[in-house]
């Protein structure tokens, strides 16, 4: 919908607050002191909680980066913007792909920008860059309401650091097997052990050359293609130097706040931590009791402290809403023999990253601090969602313009104590585009019932995750469908260990009836069904098909002349 720009003079009584949103990548809810961890030191995050409001049932709309962040930015489930997956690939894999958050979508940044806010994103984006040609930037943060962007248009991942287990090494293993097969055929013919057609050998040899070329460009050069830093629409470092990334992101975030002290601003500080590869900053190395992962958490806490210190030292504390969260739960399967556990701890909750509707993958920290407006030290146990940020920020910016159908709700009445109950009677949990589970908070009851229609198959059997594949899938043989569905009462059984039965739960039949009716209403409101092409004008085109995800040279962001991309950021002139 077209938005009307209604800038408000800064300095008026009742002016709109500054907004600082802080999101950590892959952080487990059990990784911080204020959420029960007594061995990792997080005094600055704990301070935010003690000076503000801590949410204990804060839910991500998806258990993976791309769909969760799409929902967070738009206030709508990821399928509504085409960002839900139907197959194996559930997140964007290449910066040179054409998938991403559609230009037609509206983000909270775009809404606040139209209300006169100066908007900035520092850190991770992972919602696409180009659509049809290099430089069209149709998915870029600048096109989605962020007037300033510095950071990773993709994400931090293992290929950015030499020696880490990565997509590069996995693909190289497959290629080596293919080539070995060809040379084995040649050896067999040369030794006279088996009659092999020369035409077949020639075809296999050409196939191996083609496979090598096809592999080399997107995979061998993957650090060049994906591991880049952009300032607005310019690539300023390719490939990026990972070791200094945290300090640069922090400096940019602090600089943005200082530059905009005299006007209303929105800063989304989207950290590269705690996604692997883990950082190895000498200032924090070996300081925690949980190896490198714990060191990284303590570095995150220090960064949060520096941002808070910047806000407070500029006299902005009482006019700034600060928010802290994670995009989803910790990655349980991420570990190796050298470093040990590299993924987060999800406390008592079952599951983790990419595990559908299991609580450990979607229950995340949620902290709001706004001295003078929000009471300090409060704890809210009501169901809330990352999608609630969109309507909450709209309310704070006094944005009354028409909008699309939203799945989030304004949190201010709940945060200010004007109401005691969340507006989320039902919440829907997706694994890709598939409705995985439903949460029901009945009126007049403390119970939170959760109904699972299917669950991921863990491997090996009996394990608490998909350790054979590192990431759980949402379809086919990778899941088990339940008829009747599995039902848990999260109030009495937060770890989802004891399914309810008609014998143990008097409301068993009612739970099934109420959630089934809620699902029908929800599906009836889904006018934006995802499709793979543009054949249905009333549907949303999927951004997560292979056609959209795979690398295309003409879409690849490049510093220099493609394919000779390469540059290093001039940090001296930017300081």
UniProtKB/TrEMBL annotation:
Keywords in alphabetical order: Calcium, Hydrolase, Membrane, Metal-binding, Transmembrane, Transmembrane helix
Domain Sulfatase N-terminal residue range list: 17-397
Cofactor field: Ca(2+)
Stretch forming the signal peptide: none
GO molecular function annotations of the record: arylsulfatase activity; metal ion binding
Membrane-spanning segments: 198-217
Cited InterPro entries: Alkaline_phosphatase_core_sf (IPR017850), Sulfatase (IPR050738), Sulfatase_CS (IPR024607), Sulfatase_N (IPR000917)
GO CC annotation terms, alphabetical: endoplasmic reticulum
Family classification: Belongs to the sulfatase family.
Name of this protein: Sulfatase N-terminal domain-containing protein
Organism encoding this protein: Mola mola
